[in-house]
Design a protein that fits this description.
Helix content: over 70%
Structural class: mainly alpha
Number of helices: 24
Oligomer: single chain
Number of strands: 0
Radius of gyration: 52 Å
Largest sheet: none
Distance between the termini: 161 Å
């Protein structure tokens, strides 16, 4: 069996050595240093990140604050959109001082405040020059416009017929163009042109003023040639046309002045005549010490004629009234003509003609009583002062003529041609009722409607207005007026008023509403009069069946 030989080792055990104490020799210390260095690196990195983050946050805050401040900045800028005062641009600049934004920057750090200040400075640099230029431009435009207004005023004075005004105007004109402040606003060329243009204006206006005064004979060839030689050739035709118009205007104005003075003279004579007439009549109706003191003497009346205060015909009329104490009755035909004219008097011109006829025309005034003339003047005054009164008076006057079977004078003449005779007594009666109607409106200050309702009480059953003949309300439907009144006499008119009010809520037509209410009142009042005349006989009072007008 083979034998295993074990060889003995030649290696010897190492000798004991002391442990090394240097950092390099100690791994644990090496690791500690590495850890410390790592921590420092990490800290520096975090610090750098934090600084970057803060910078971003500061930038974002500045941006947000800038956006928040922009509306206020814009509003401040817009306040001076129409300004012409250059000092306003400095005021705007001051509004961009950071002190004005303290409330906005509260609790913000220094970096944010500095950044926002930089933003404001940029706004100042951008907006201040822009605003200043805009204001300056507007200032110049306004100044030039003011210059033109001043020069136009000087031109008017220069062209004035008054010598003193001309002198002052020329002085002001010359001083304007010598003013250094004015010379700064214009170039030399602009200023020269402006002076030339406005001197031409002054000359043209002087020509026109002379034409308006009738001092230029445009029919004279030499005059026209002289004018054309002194004006701008491009404007010569227009100037001549303006001069012709001014001359025609002068002639027309003269004619108008004559007419106006004549009217003034007539109006004054009518007023003087009326005052004297009223004084005479007041004493006649109520002879007291007071009315006697105001009573004109014959000498007063004579002096009024001699001075031209009244006409010869007015003088004769006053003498007649003075002698017969106004007892003379009016000619019914003349009174009827006057009433007819009132019914047609829908313009001031027609009223004036009527008044002049009554107060100046001897053929008319000689046939009228004192009362008739005074009452006519009173009606004329009311017609002129109140158009509503005039319209209503005409309407009710026409209605009275229908009620009283009033026949016109023309109809009476036609009847006589055919051998027929009109009822003269009826005509006199009709005139009497109409006269009372006018008296109530003038002397008692009744409205035409009130006066109408008063005088129809004097009418006979046959003369009384039928309800169907009266203007009907337009916004309600009347089916059977008789039947409604029989069932509910009191409530019928109230229901009609309610229906009108309901209709108004839909249509919103206030004029129709008011007119319909007035018509219902009239129907009710006339029915009341008819009931009185017919002794409360409802059927008789109602008359014909009443239906709504188509």
């Amino acid at each position: 069996m083979a034998k295993i030989k074990i060889e003995r080792s030649n290696r010897q055990a190492a000798q004991f050595q002391t442990t090394p104490t240097s950092a390099a020799a100690l791994p644990v210390f090496q690791i500690g240093n590495q850890v410390e260095a790592g921590f420092n690196a990490i800290g520096n990195s975090i610090k750098r990140v934090a600084e970057k983050t803060k910078a971003v946050e500061d930038r974002n805050n500045i941006h947000d604050l800038s956006i928040e401040a922009l509306p206020a900045i814009t509003d401040n800028y817009d306040k001076y959109n129409n300004s012409t005062n250059v000092a306003d641009s400095l005021t705007f600049l001051q509004s961009l001082d950071i002190k004005n934004f303290d409330s906005l920057l509260k609790d913000q750090n220094k970096e944010v405040k500095d950044g926002f200040k930089t933003f404001l400075q940029k706004q100042q640099l951008q907006l201040f020059p822009k605003l200043k230029n805009e204001i300056t431009a507007r200032h110049i435009i306004k100044s030039k416009s003011t210059d033109d207004d001043l020069l136009n005023g000087y031109v008017k004075d220069m062209a004035s017929p008054n010598g003193q005004d001309q002198f002052i105007g020329n002085q002001d004109f010359d001083s304007f163009f010598k003013d250094p402040k004015v010379q700064v606003r214009y170039s030399k060329k602009e200023l020269t042109k402006k002076e030339k243009d406005f001197r031409e204006k002054a000359f043209e206006l002087q020509l026109i003023n002379n034409a308006r005064s009738g001092n230029i004979d445009l029919l004279n060839n030499n005059v026209r040639k002289d004018i054309l030689s002194k004006v701008n050739p491009n404007r010569a035709k227009g100037i001549l046309e303006a001069l012709r118009n001014a001359d025609n205007s002068f002639v027309a104005k003269q004619e108008q002045d004559i007419i106006f003075r004549e009217k003034q003279n007539r109006d004054q004579k009518i007023a003087n005549f009326s005052d004297l007439l009223v004084s005479l009549n007041n004493h006649r109706l109520n002879p007291t010490s007071e009315t006697n003191a105001n009573l004109p003497t014959l000498d007063d009346i004579y002096d009024a004629r001699q001075s031209g205060a009244i006409s010869n015909s007015q003088y004769e009329t006053l003498l007649r009234f003075y002698s017969d104490a106004g007892t003379k009755l009016s000619d019914p035909v003349i009174e009827d003509i006057i009433n007819s004219q009132f019914a047609l008097a829908d313009t001031f011109e027609k009223i004036d003609v009527l008044q002049e006829s009554v107060n100046i025309d001897p053929n008319i005034s000689a046939n009228l009583s004192v009362d008739s003339i005074i009452r006519t003047n009173g009606l004329v005054k009311k017609y002129k002062e109140n158009r509503t009164f005039a319209r209503e008076h005409r309407d009710f006057l026409d209605l009275l003529k229908i009620n009283t079977k009033k026949v016109s004078d023309q109809a009476m003449e036609i009847a006589s041609v055919f051998g027929k005779s009109a009822d003269f007594d009826q005509q006199v009666r009709a005139n009497t009722i109409i006269k009372e109607f006018n008296r109530l409106t003038v002397d008692e200050n009744y409205s035409p409607e009130q006066a109408y309702e008063e005088v129809i009480n004097r009418l006979t059953k046959n003369e009384l207005p039928e309800l169907i003949d009266l203007p009907q309300p337009r916004s309600v439907k009347i089916i059977d007026f008789k039947e409604q009144l029989r069932n509910d006499p009191k409530g019928t008119f109230e229901n009609m008023r309610k229906d009108v009010a309901i209709n108004f809520k839909t249509t919103k037509n206030i004029s129709q509403y008011k007119e319909d209410m007035k018509r219902i009142d009239r129907l009710e009042d006339v029915l009341g009069v008819r009931l009185s005349v017919f002794d409360k006989d409802l059927d008789g009072a109602l008359g014909k069946k009443l239906k709504k007008d188509k």
